[in-house]
Amino acid sequence: MKRQNIIIIAISLLALFSGKDVWTEPPLINGNVITVTTADSATQAYTKMESAQAGDIVEIAHGTYKFRVYLSKAAASSSSIIIRAKDPNNPPLFDSDNIDPGPLPASYTGEDKSRASWQISGS
What we know:
This protein is of the alpha/beta class. Helices cover 20% and strands 18% of the residues. The strands form three sheets. A three-stranded parallel beta sheet has the order 1-2-5, with helices on one face. A two-stranded parallel sheet has the order 3-6. Residues 1-26 have low confidence and may be disordered.
């Protein structure tokens, strides 16, 4: 059976058992939608992203971003923090210009700050 058919069957079963019209009803959001754009300063952008709480969705607009992100908040699987491109067909780019990411703007100042542009801890 093709993957597409399996997905349609799964969505149909979800609709049947949930009593909701999954084709027209938007997904439930338990928290806020946080939008990050290139108009934000690096400090504003990583602060927005790092402040996300369980149930929030972080949408990152197209553009090039030059900062580090340190995510340390835990969220239950039933109320995740979702980070996604605002436009999946035109995703953002995190670029450190082939340099050690340690000097890039960020809130995290630990010894391992040069390890990566994105660090996830305790989640």
